[in-house]
Design goal:
38% strand, two-stranded antiparallel ribbon, 25% helix, disordered C terminus, 10 strands
Length: 166
């Protein structure tokens, strides 16, 4: 079985990109990344739009930190694999673009901060734990892919991906 998690980018701040994350076609939570750029800046660039396989990374400092933070849940970091010019890109907790380090943050609520012109997400730990459990379950059943798309291309790509993957 092959599952697809869709990340639909919907809003852009000065240095942040807000997304809606869908699992099995239903809205699950919000996502937050750095700015989308035409060129890579290490730790400060959103993940390029595309489709990437998810895997479990069971080594490294972040893995050890999450094992301490979520001892009964953590089996490894959810890593977004084979991103050109990127490595160790994870789905993790955080609230603003300063927390992303080039990764995808998750949260249940979001807010636009007018004075900074940035998006932030909240209830991140709660959303992360729920999404993590869901992704582990899907990974146990087969491949899980993350598809990231820009707002103007999302509907077209999501429709095409659904038809091609069934």
């Amino acid at each position: 079985m092959k599952s697809i998690v869709n990340v639909k980018r919907v809003k852009k701040g000065e240095n942040s990109t807000l997304s809606e994350i869908y699992v099995d076609g239903e809205f699950f939570c919000y996502g937050l990344e750095d700015s989308v750029r035409d060129y890579k800046i290490k730790g400060s660039t959103a993940i390029p739009a595309g489709k990437y396989k998810l895997g479990l990374n069971t080594y490294g400092a972040m893995n050890a930190r999450y094992k301490r933070l979520f001892p009964d849940l953590h089996k490894g970091m959810i890593e977004i694999l084979a991103i050109p010019d990127f490595s160790y890109v994870y789905i993790h907790i955080g609230n603003n673009f300063g927390d992303t380090a080039g990764c995808l943050l998750v949260g249940y609520t979001m807010k636009y901060i007018k004075y900074t012109r940035e998006y932030e997400i909240y209830q991140s730990k709660k959303a992360y734990k729920a999404l993590y459990k869901r992704l582990l379950k899907l990974m146990a059943q087969g491949e899980v892919w993350l598809q990231i798309c820009q707002p103007d291309l999302c509907q077209k790509k999501l429709t095409l991906a659904t038809k091609q993957d069934n």
